[in-house]
Amino acid sequence: MSGIGWWGVPVAVLAGAIRVSTPFLFVSLGELVTEKSGRVNLGLEGTLVMGAMSGFAIAWLTGSPWLGVLAAALVGALLGVLHAAICSLPRVNPIAVGIAMMLFGTGLAFYLGKPFIEPKAPELPALDLGFWSANPAIRSALKVNALFFIGVALAPALVWMLRNSGIGLVLRMVGDSEDAARAMGYSPRLVRLAATGFGGALAGIGGSFLSLYYPGSWNEGLSSGQGITAVALVIFARWNPMGCLWASLLFGGAGALGPALQAIGVTGFYHLFNALPYIVTLLIMIVSCSPDRTLAGAPGELSITR
Amino acid sequence: MASGSGFSRRAVLGGLGLGAAGLAAGSLAAPAARAAGKTIVGFIYVGTANDYGYNQAHAEGAAAVRKMPGVTVLEQARVPETVAVQNTMDGMINLDGASILFPTSFGYFDPFVLRLAKSKPKAQFLHAGGLWKEGEPLNAHSYFGFISQAVYTAGIVAGHMSKSKKLGFIAAKPIPQVLRNINAFTLGAQSVDSSITTTVVFTGDWFLPVREAEAANSLADQGADVLTCHVDSPKVVMETADKRGIFCTGYHTNQAVLAPKAYLTGAEWNWTGLYPRLVGDLIAGKTLPNMIRGGFREGFVRNSAYNAIVPEAARKQADGVRAQFMAGNFAVFKGPLKDNKGNTVLGAGTTLDEFDLVLEQMNYLVAGVIGSTS
Q1: Does any domain span residue A301?
Q2: Is residue A253 less than 8 Å (CB to CB) from chain B?
Q3: Which pTM value belongs to this model?
Q4: ipTM, 2 dp
């Protein structure tokens, strides 16, 4: 077995895009649905960590990784509903609640997760798309987890749902004009409750990917801010589900570049390469920003002051 | 304009100060009574105590101290390297009556341990990191083990097991202790086959599970067939090596259960041996040195048991070198030694003793390491 040299970099970026992007994808799609209803849930970092912990715990206790994913989704939905319920009280700031939920979620996960740091839970299955290759690097890169496919399929499904389905229309209406929604007889409170719950469930699933597949164990440093990054990706993606998919892939791939370059012997500037995802984000934000169409696609009711 | 309340600011502050002094006096009286006949030892960790890594090694040492008669052990995990550690230690002394403290993270020492050591002269502080300097409080001690010796012997085993002659090292930051381990690992492997190279990936921080997994996969992609690491929790690196079907050697503590097929051996802290000795000396009224250091010979470090697949030749060579370390006549760093930029860092005939402080300032990677310190 010998190395694959410079080919290692594109292979690693591809592999990283597939392996690392999944949590970003689920959390950002979840947050997108929530924001489309006109509310920001900053607490998804906490939801992600809770999802990772509860998914791992249930998978370990029951022996089934898919039950773990289900549990993570349920826990995520519960946290989302809690956020929405608190926010529906009068004069409550959703940003402040989000930050509180983030601290609550991570704290609770650390507290409840203590007994699960040592055990090994069963892993989520992966499809071996690299079976045709004899090269272990390619084979490893193309071992694609089932959740990745679900996430990738979810993005166009959400595009269709938001554009064409009744649910999507109601969601967008609540997000764009609360008064219009009320006039039509829909309760913004209930719609947001459902949207935040759905967003939480997706974020929980994203967390379970971390603990059940890659890197595949539960510990307290597992997320290192991925939930917060994913929330920011929604703005970056201009509230477009396909944008979330591309942004997540870009983030995953860019994150793999730093280690991959060092592994082939490009040793300088590794701090810079490790910071690459953020530099890329900044650049794209600057390039894509223009005075006449800033924040196109942003839901009308979305505001940090209410 | 003076305030109309009748209290000057100074009087208020003075009153507060007196109150605080009263509280302090009250809380100082309590431990004296409680501590009669019982020594209370406090351990403080920066992360989780069962992280299969740095913190677990210390927690295993704490468990060994707990078995000593007449000793009660307190533990607090996940204490950041901020004023939080000072408050934790303060609480352990004032509220729980601890007289010996083990603040086990590098960044706890300056200024937090130093500050508290001055204000609590009766308590003994044993800090992991080897940072004590002349002129600092005498009740503050800093200990450290020459784990690079155990990394060297692990490197010998890695050198025997590698077929591709490429090793991978996942490191957090290019600080002297980390560079010393990378170099020791490489030199150990090169003592088996001088053509062996080690590729280093620096992740940038002590605990980044996803990036560590990416680094391990990238190194495996490049043909490295034995991985090791210097990060706080080697768990992810060991598990990834196992998944990729390559070998690994552990660090900090024993990770064999995480990678039963891949785990060859590992460099471990022997805190279970050292801590009861230090606590026993303090209880017996002995004065400990302020700088406490040692390697194999002094019982500070050890290797994990070999995997069954490690061949006889590898065991024999590693055991032989370890025996020489125990006898005190083996040095990891001896001339002629070149760094990986071609500069001579040690001339022929120069041998650096492990206690030599020059080693604490290591800023180079030896020839055969693919990586850069900046």
Answers
A1: no
A2: no
A3: 0.86
A4: 0.87
